[in-house]
Design brief:
The protein is α/β, with parallel strands linked by helices. The protein has 19 helices and 16 strands. The termini are far apart. Bound molecules: flavin-adenine dinucleotide (FAD). The site of flavin-adenine dinucleotide has 43 residues, from helix 10, helix 15, helix 17, helix 18 and helix 19.
Length: 472
């Protein structure tokens, strides 16, 4: 190795900075945020580790192409105002993405320091800037283009809808969001728990698009209150961002017993309806002692950790593959394990057994082993004959996946769907099979991620703008 190279390598700081967190013993008993965020000093130290690569691979790993080295360079200079401005050029939800994006498979997975297992903590730095801005109490509103006189309806206020609305209002169009629930934010509000994404943060991000001038109607179910065809008589274009909120069940005996929930219901009761605060909130949630959560993704981890916080003694993740195949973010699976969630891996429930009053009392499972890779590239689970066993449980939360609610497609002639119930839309523009209607996010991809929904929203906004201004 040349002297010059040795000198350069020795300057590289390979110590990724940890983020302070509540200790597992404390946090498993409260709903406050687990990760506490970088202090200014830690953020600057972490930012200084960035090599400012000439060809930054991290940027190519980000679905919305944030100028990552640029915003990090502002943190090094302690110019946080410019840092957040740079970040917001590409991402209108930085406080959310800094908390929930799967950075380990996106931007951070591309970081050159990943070769030394010391990738820059890009998500934590993003979160630091967003939280810094919030603490200042003033939010810089970007300039808006001259009004175009065109009107856009956005259906759904999740990350896809918010991104489309934020982008189009800045381009001079009049934008109205129609949301079915009584609070805006989509899964960020009703699905992801307070201890991972405080609701005040989501409210702040929604408030930002409101401040830009977007009008938000809640309790407005498109397909019931008004159809898309009716909206098209008033609006020049419509964006459908209704997500994938229809829960799957396994279709096994006993799923109708009391104590068997879909993760969707369980988390909505807790997050949107604030069930954990009962009797201060009006929606009670039963306190179960032994809870099995079926599935291995983020939704399963969120449900299991919520059950712990509700006072359950024995909370288990029941997943049919092994630890290596868990689809959840690595950090969230680790958090769950630290808090005391037990992982019953290579295990599949086949039967829920109830007591004489119709309440769940046992879960019958079989053991699995991994066979050949399936279409997803993952080794498929195969049942081990005669491996049945029973676990005493008083609740099961089924978190095996979701698909889109069929209401909008079934009430909109001309809107084509796939076999899976997702909307057919051009991946580059979001254009659907119906004139003047675009779509993006989970309604098109099936259940995916926040940042992918935002990326789809951005592409659709660009295409809608071209159409609305006649530049397509
Ligand atoms: P959504 O967020 O689902 O928003 C759709 C909105 O449309 C909802 O508010 C819904 O009420 C509304 N709507 C539906 N039908 C109608 C109608 N007919 N009329 C009016 N409004 C309607 N992703 C990550 O990146 N990281 C994570 O850590 C993560 N954790 C997750 C945890 C949970 C519990 C869940 C459920 C999902 C998680 N995800 C995570 C996935 C992520 O939240 C979604 O991919 C993302 O929210 C999809 O955004 P969207 O805008 O397409 O839809």
């Amino acid at each position: 190795m040349s002297e010059e190279k040795t000198e350069k390598t020795s300057k590289i700081d390979l110590n990724r900075n940890d983020m302070p967190r509540q200790s597992p013993e404390v946090r498993r008993h409260n709903f406050s945020e687990v990760a506490l965020g970088y202090t200014e000093e830690i953020a600057v130290t972490e930012a200084k580790r960035c090599l400012q690569c000439k060809k930054p691979r991290c940027k190519t790993g980000c679905p919305v192409e944030i100028d990552i080295p640029d915003f990090i360079s502002f943190i090094v200079k302690r110019d946080f105002a410019s840092g957040i401005k740079k970040l917001k050029e590409k991402n209108c939800l930085p406080a959310v993405c800094g908390r929930v994006c799967p950075q380990e498979t996106q931007c951070e997975s591309q970081c050159i320091l990943g070769n030394k297992k010391a990738e820059i903590a890009i998500g934590r730095l993003e979160r630091f800037l967003a939280d810094w801005e919030a603490k200042q109490g003033v939010v810089d509103l970007p300039p808006k283009a001259k009004p175009t006189g065109k009107k856009v309806a956005v259906i759904g206020s999740g990350p896809a809808g918010i991104t489309v609305a934020g982008d189009l209002i800045l381009l001079g169009h009049e934008v109205t969001i129609f949301e079915a629930l009584h609070k805006a934010g989509g899964v960020l509000t009703y699905g992801i728990p307070e201890f991972r994404l405080p609701k005040a943060i989501v409210a702040r991000e929604v408030d930002y698009v409101r401040k830009l001038g977007v009008e938000v109607f809640t309790d407005y179910v498109v397909g019931k209150t008004r159809s898309i065809d009716e909206l098209l008589t008033e609006f020049d274009a419509v964006f459908v961002g209704t997500g994938a909120g229809l829960p799957w069940f396994m279709d096994i005996p006993g799923e109708n017993l009391n104590g068997v929930y879909s993760a969707n219901e369980y988390l909505t009761r807790m997050n949107l309806m604030q069930g954990y605060r009962f009797p201060m909130s009006s929606t009670p949630v039963k306190k179960h002692v032994r809870v099995a959560v079926v599935g291995g993704g983020n939704v399963a981890m969120d449900s299991a950790r919520t059950a712990l916080r509700m006072g359950a003694d024995d909370v288990r993740i029941v997943y049919r593959r092994s630890h290596a195949e868990l689809p959840a973010r690595a950090e969230e699976a680790e958090n769950a394990e630290e808090e005391g969630v037990i992982f019953n891996l290579l295990t599949l429930p086949i039967n829920y057994i109830g007591d004489e009053n119709g309440w769940l009392k046992e879960v019958e499972c079989v053991k699995m082993e991994l066979g050949e890779p399936d279409a997803s590239g993952r080794r498929s689970p195969v049942e081990i004959p005669n491996s049945n066993f029973r676990m005493p449980m008083d609740a099961v939360v089924c978190a095996i996946g979701n698909s889109p609610n069929p209401l909008v497609p079934s009430t909109t002639p001309g809107l084509q769907t796939t076999r899976k119930g997702t909307l057919v839309a051009d991946p580059e523009t979001g254009k659907t099979t119906k004139d003047r209607v675009w779509a993006g996010g989970d309604i098109v991809t099936g259940a995916a991620t926040v940042i992918l929904a935002m990326g789809a929203g951005r592409k659709a906004a660009r295409s809608m703008h071209e159409y609305l201004t006649g530049t397509a």
